[in-house]
Structure of GNAT family N-acetyltransferase:
Amino acid sequence: MHLVSANAGPEKVAAPSVLESQHGSVRPLAAEDLERVAALFLTKFRRRRRHLLDRAIAETAEYMREIYLDPAGQSGASNALVQINRQGRLGGFLGVLKARYELNGAALNAAIIGPLMADPGTDDGSAGPQLLRAVHQGEFDLHLTDSANRTSLAFARPMKYQLLPVHCLGWTCIFRPAAMAAAALHRKWPGLPRLALDPCARAFDALSKRRFGSPVQLSSSHRVHREPIDAAQFAERLPTLLSDYSLRPNWKDGELPRLLALAAEKRADGPLHFGGTYDETGKMLGCYAFYGQAGDIASLLQIQASGSHWGATLDGLIAAAWDMGCVGITGQTQSRFMPQLFGYKNVFFRYAGGTMVRSRIAEVTEAVRSGDIFIGGLIGDRWTRLSSDDFGR
């Protein structure tokens, strides 16, 4: 298939509003579905017992309304889908966010696939595949996800999704190991008193300074420096740093500032901070956004650099989290800064979620195969509150 601009070639046809099968029907998410979908989400992904759900359902449903039913600049039916079984009950849900991409000047519609879930009480195993097949029949030129669990991987791989192995990894740089363990325990059990953990953590970390010292590395060039920036500066400069990618997002009409405002609503990892690296003339060489606060684990949202400046930009990120008093930092890997990550001590890697892309357009699949795609962070769903926040508490 030859790639053409959105204004040339055949007109795309949206998916039918309702898709029927012998297992039930799939249709766009509607307002009346929100509470049932929220309850299913909380039981599947937050392990909430049903008698404790009431105070969390309303908050989760309202957040789903914000991102799935009321996205700015989008009209018509929601891109998120629900599966309704033959008895008329909710069988499953697929969270879908729409994004604009471009490839060598041609406009593309992208579906960012988020939570995929089925109700074990009503589903016969067909809801997941049926929801994925339905979104594949829609108006999208490519489908992508950066947070698929192993169950979703099993559904998606036979449907010709391309896996990006490096992006599936998460990295963690440990600053203070005992304090980091204490922070992780406190996240898992918020009621655990910090006074019982912090003194022991401080004592252990004082003894381990020789092994876990400051991770801050000086840039190889004294002409490069870092500065904190705000969301508006980040939104202005990030698109200009993506010119190295052939397949990249195309944010228009205030979409990126709105996306950052939504990302700032996330609570689990602390406030959202922005920074940039600059040369002596004031030109921005790279930028980053991360969540963090003193005594907690920082979480990278996005990092991007131009040309050979990934090392200085990563150095700036690590230094910013250290200076803030964070006990460590974690993030999603990218092939373009893996060599710089290897230069840090006390960095560990783990599987963090499947990153996959699907498209019938040959040029798109080739760009993905060669790693010439900007994906993850703001082009994913890890920025949403659904990825980490504990609703109703």
User: Anything to note?
Assistant: The mean pLDDT is 86. The CA atoms of residues 23 and 126 lie 7 Å apart. The chain has two domains: 19-167, 169-354.
